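Honest question from a wet-lab person: if I give you the sequences of every part of a complex, can you actually get the arrangement of the whole thing, not just the pieces? Trying it with mine:
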Amino acid sequence: MELATSLLSGNRRALARGISVVETGGTAARALLSAVYAQTGRAHIVGVTGSPGAGKSTLVNALALHWRRQGRTVGIVAVDPTSPFTGGAILGDRIRMQPLCGDPGIFIRSMASRGRLGGIAHATSDTIDLLDAAGFDVILVETVGAGQSEVEIASAAHTTMVIEVPGMGDDVQAIKAGILEIADIFVINKADRDGAEATMRQLRAMLHLGGPPRDGWEPPILPAVAMREEGIPTIAAEVERHLEHLRDTGQKADRERARAAREFQLIVQEAALERARTRLADAGWDALVAQIAAREIDPYAAAAELLD
Amino acid sequence: MERKIRVLVAKPGLDGHDRGAKVIARALRDAGMEVIYTGLQQTPPMIVEASLQEDVDVIGLSILSGAHMTLLPKIAQLLHEQGMDDVLVVAGGIISDADAKVLKEQHGIAAVYGPGASTHDIVQFIQENAGTRKA
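Yes, you can. This is the full assembly:
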């Protein structure tokens, strides 16, 4: 498969085209992912989430610069919401990453959620696989958190970072949105503002309320001023330490097995459905649906007959 | 999943007047397109590299500084070198009719819109001309 070969050899245009293919989905997407799958599994996948305006893009930019200086390559996926009214989107995360422009060790892709509940995780997960196969050492995935789709994207990441800012009542947010459960690292950005210490204390108190650390990892709470690149080396070090922890405790292997199980199930479901629909053709499918609606047959028997 | 039209909106050079670009970005979003807004002070290599990574169908360039005859041909040249001739390039700003003619005839710019152009016309042009994907 030409596109796959090109992508795997480092051709950036092929990578960009490949991402468009997996965003659209369908046969071509499956063929591409199938062709590159053996080359995935090497990258460290880091999810970055938090409220709009918390400074995620600026922080992603700073972390990428830091890792670049260490000679690591970085892929970035920036996800923004699609307007539910118009179906369009303004993807403005790149604008915060100007210093990364022109660096061949960086690849940035902006992605709109396209109103797919949970489906956004599909396209994002596939894009992560392509960046992984293309050889990037670290893949940063930035989303506006945290809803259902963010939780799903978090399950594709090895390390999930939640960004808060001081004194915005974010302590209440954190409890409501289930952020405490998905965060491996907390960053208090804009830490030069009033209330930063108080926010860190509140967050620490809430974490302790939740009982002993999950899986032996106590999430660090780290201050930063991303715009001035302050606090970045510590954050990067903690991200790396988290991956080591996952490796040492066998959790990395567990998570990857769980992810593979989830994805395989989804893929089989999709494939079975598509096969059934192809066998029937639209007319046959619609006729069956009409029979079911008229109570002439029940959907369970119809499905069993179709799949056997 | 139907394909969305992806548009990169950029201001090349040192022109700081971005109201027009933002109005266009919003109009395109309202027409269902995905707009990658890269903002001010973009160099031609930055614009072409971003367009490549984002696999856009369209590039929208806003220039009011008068530097369009230097910057736009440069961008067109870089696109050609990258094999990206299938990307639709649309320009807007303060560009004389004479310059617009040269840009369209000699540098592959598909359309040039000046002050007073309707966003409806721009949207329609893009929808009709953003090419179908070649693999």
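Two things worth pointing out. Chain A is about 55% helix and 15% strand. The first helix of chain A runs from residue 2 to 8.
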